């Protein structure tokens, strides 16, 4: 149930590096869905697209007020979550939140929203919440990292409460003044926080590709896993955003494409699925769709690719 480790798929299951992924373990894969019509509705849509994982915005992604969730909706959501077999639920903190901002008003907004949205995650039983570290905008990136640390420190007691979610820092493409395009920057944030137990990392395939990790090269995939392990410790990696890229490797440009239809392509995702540490992570699609039901095609594509690799 809510935030409890037994419900969250182990990110280190089958953690030996290299080799074929085990065929007996089904993928935990889902997509980003709207909860504007209620959490139970999102659970039903997840079932329609054959997802066993779900990501949602706790509020309007532009940062508006949270929609109220009463006890009746919460109870029905938890019932539906179990009924449709959702194994992993994660919130995405709004994109407008900039934990590294040097602007007082934007920074205060970011700190308030982070606190409120983590409380919402605990209320609805989310396993994790992922946030972009933010952009330092001007000056020294080290100053931005210190602001991220100072923004997260007040929520650490909340993360220690029963049923609390993990807070995950997302790997970024490194465009402009973004923090998180280098793994060392995520390590610096964790260093500043004192390596708290429930602060971790969410990998993003498109962002990592844009930052220079080429999924089409098996050696580069192995190097990525080793680099992440050295920088933050693999046990802190709790989720994986699976997105193809509209731009080439190393472009520092963050534009998602449907899986298999961009620059990463089939071979890149095959290499991901061949690596047991990556394959064991809960996977969430954030690809461009006109209708949420379109996610069914990409979820099916990933599962069919995984089965083909297991049979080869």
Describe this protein's structure.
With 312 residues, this protein is α/β, with parallel strands linked by helices. It has a single domain, classed as Divalent-metal-dependent TIM barrel enzymes (TIM Barrel), CATH 3.20.20. Helices cover 40% and strands 13% of the residues. The strands form 2 sheets. An 8-stranded parallel barrel has the order 1-2-3-4-5-6-7-10. Strands 8-9 form a two-stranded antiparallel ribbon. Strand 1, helix 1 and strand 2 form a beta-alpha-beta unit. Helix 1 runs parallel beside helix 2 and helix 4 crosses helix 6. The longest helix has 21 residues. 48% of the residues are buried.
Question: What are the SSEs and their pairings?
Answer:
Blueprint: E1 29-32, H1 39-48, E2 53-56, H2 71-84, E3 88-92, H3 104-124, E4 128-131, H4 141-152, H5 156-159, E5 166-170, H6 183-193, E6 199-204, H7 205-210, H8 218-232, E7 237-242, E8 244-245, E9 256-257, H9 265-274, H10 276-279, E10 283-285, H11 295-311
Parallel strand pairs: 1-2, 1-10, 2-3, 3-4, 4-5, 5-6, 6-7, 7-10
Antiparallel strand pairs: 8-9
Helix pairs in contact: 1-2, 4-6, 6-8, 9-11
């Amino acid at each position: 149930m809510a935030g409890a480790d037994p419900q969250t798929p182990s990110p280190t299951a089958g953690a030996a590096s290299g080799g074929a992924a085990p065929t007996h373990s089904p993928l935990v894969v889902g997509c980003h869905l709207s909860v504007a019509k209620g959490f139970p509705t999102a659970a039903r849509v997840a079932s329609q697209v054959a997802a066993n994982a779900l990501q949602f915005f706790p509020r309007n992604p532009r940062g508006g007020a949270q929609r109220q969730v009463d006890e009746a909706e919460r109870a029905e959501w938890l019932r539906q979550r179990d009924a449709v077999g959702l194994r992993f639920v994660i919130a995405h903190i709004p994109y407008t939140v900039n934990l590294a901002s040097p602007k007082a008003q934007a920074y205060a907004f970011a700190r308030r929203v982070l606190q409120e949205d983590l409380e919402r995650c605990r209320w609805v039983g989310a396993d994790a919440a992922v946030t972009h570290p933010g952009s330092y905008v001007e000056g020294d990136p080290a100053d931005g990292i210190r602001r991220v640390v100072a923004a997260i420190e007040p929520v650490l007691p909340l993360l220690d409460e029963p049923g609390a979610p993990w807070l995950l820092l997302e790997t970024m493409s490194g465009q402009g003044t973004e923090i998180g395009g280098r793994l060392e920057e995520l390590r610096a944030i964790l260093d500043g926080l004192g390596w708290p137990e429930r602060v971790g990392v969410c990998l993003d395939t498109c962002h990592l590709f844009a930052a220079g990790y080429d999924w089409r090269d098996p050696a580069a995939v192995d190097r990525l896993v080793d680099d992440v392990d050295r920088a933050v410790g693999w046990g802190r990696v709790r989720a994986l955003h699976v997105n193809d890229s509209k731009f080439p490797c190393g472009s520092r440009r963050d534009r998602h494409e449907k899986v298999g239809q961009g620059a990463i392509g089939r071979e890149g995702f095959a290499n991901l699925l061949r690596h047991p540490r990556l394959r064991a992570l809960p996977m969430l699609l954030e690809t461009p769709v006109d209708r949420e039901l379109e996610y069914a095609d990409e979820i099916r594509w990933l599962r069919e690719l995984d089965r083909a690799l297991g049979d080869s």
